[in-house]
Write a structure and sequence with these properties.
binds flavin-adenine dinucleotide; FAD-bd_OxRdtase; FAD/NAD(P)-binding domain; 5-stranded parallel beta sheet; 3 domains
Length: 375
């Protein structure tokens, strides 16, 4: 059996390593010039070039090939590489991840970057100039903003929604976080609609232009506007693609010889774009390719805000009414619908995180919630 894996992120590298260790003929293709590295460490390592350069694995796996895949020929069951060579497969695993969203207005502008790859992080670190604006107040945007702030730069976060971390926090928790971050020195603007840019003669960013207020000066602009699943190869090969590459419970695409896993895959309408999903999908595909009959079971979709001073965990849907409590800077909210825990958030303490893992989308009683809130 010949297996080709496209993409050396966490999903693709796990599959290739495991299959290779079990004697399967596997080849892993990557368009990036590095060995495997963990993307989630990039925000903390901004401005630390030495740390960034030390991030990728130096062990060159024998099955890793540094070539981009340009096309899939499903009839011939082969892929076309960027140097014109082809490679046959019995099974193909698409682990092409996602790309940071770039608004057209900011494309090809000096001083403007997304933060998705090691190359992005190195570019930001090498060209960082005061003042810095981060467009997007989600998890990644805030982590990057804090890392840069702590290196002594002036940083403003601009968020389009009514509050930062709008997908993870309710308005009360978001306000607590905002007060905390502002006391650390971060400037936060919410309800911001960015409409364009001002640049100097060298096409370098000078200011973010926003609706209904003065331009916000910046010499570095980091776009943290979410991601789009990388589906171009799949689309070109006429596989079923929606927001991601559509897969079934075995993570098969609309072609039974092709699987899709990680950020690029859409399972049951969802494209979560988080690490536990990529790992869970990789484990499931390894098992299938090794002949085990195990369906993919999605993990609990939990996100964690990682900061040296503060811990926040959020799971599921945190909109609507909740049972909550705020005491001494600790806040917890539980969102129950039809007797089931549809979402929860923990701010300032993660003591109750095990309960979220075990009870998410399951029945909970008012007594259990009262017990959790007895801090
Ligand atoms: C800065 C940052 C911080 C994050 N923090 C967290 C966090 O705290 N918690 C969390 O759960 N998630 C976090 N995430 C998300 C998490 O990193 C992703 O869910 C995870 O990396 C997805 O892994 P993947 O293998 O599916 O895709 P990726 O890691 O995106 O890897 C895909 C690879 O495929 C390559 N590729 C694409 N097309 C081709 C082609 N045609 N030929 C060859 N190679 C190709 C790409 O270059 C890339 O190397 C973060 C992401 C970023 C960017």
């Amino acid at each position: 059996m010949r297996v080709c894996v496209i993409g050396n992120g966490v999903a693709g590298s796990m599959v290739a390593e495991r299959l290779s260790s079990r004697g399967v003929a596997v080849t892993l293709y990557t368009e990036e010039p590095y060995g495997f590295y963990s993307r989630i460490k990039l925000p903390q390592l901004l401005c630390d070039e030495e740390g960034l350069c030390a991030l990728p694995s130096t062990r060159e796996a024998p099955y890793l090939v540094h070539k981009a895949v340009k096309k899939i020929d499903r009839q011939k069951q082969e892929i076309l590489l960027d140097d014109g060579e082809t490679s046959p497969y019995d099974f193909l695993v698409l682990a092409t991840g996602s790309r940071g969203r770039v608004l057209d207005a900011f494309a090809n502008t000096k001083g403007v970057s997304t933060l998705r790859t090691l190359e992005d992080a190195l570019l930001i670190s090498q060209t960082l100039a005061d003042p810095v604006v981060v467009l997007g107040g989600g998890l990644l945007g805030l982590e990057a903003a804090l890392a840069i702030l702590r290196k002594g730069y002036g940083v403003t976060v601009c968020e389009g929604a009514s509050h930062i971390l709008a997908r993870q926090l309710d308005a009360k928790a978001s306000k607590l976080l905002r007060v905390q971050l502002e006391s650390d020195g971060l400037v936060i603007n919410e309800c911001i609609k960015a409409t364009g840019k001002r640049v100097d003669q060298d096409n370098r960013i000078e200011a973010l232009v926003v609706e209904g207020r003065e331009d916000i000066p910046c010499k570095t602009l980091i776009l943290s506007l979410g991601v789009n699943a990388e589906t171009s190869l799949a689309k070109d090969a006429d596989l079923e693609v929606d927001r991601g590459i559509v897969v079934d419970e075995k993570l098969r695409t609309s072609d039974e010889h092709i699987f899709a896993i990680g950020d690029c895959a859409q399972y049951k309408g969802q494209v979560p774009g988080i690490l536990p999903v990529a790992i869970g999908m990789a484990q499931s595909v390894m098992a299938t390719l090794l002949g085990e009959t195990k369906d993919y079971i999605p993990p609990v979709l939990m996100t964690r805000f990682k900061d040296e001073k503060l811990e926040i965990v959020s799971v599921g849907d945190v909109s609507g009414a909740s049972t909550n409590k705020l005491k001494d800077g600790r806040y917890e909210a539980y969102f129950v619908e039809d007797g089931k825990l549809k979402g929860a958030l923990l701010y300032g303490s993660v003591e109750n995180v095990a309960f979220l893992r075990s009870h998410y989308l399951k029945a909970v009683t008012p007594e259990e919630i009262a017990e959790l809130l007895s801090f």
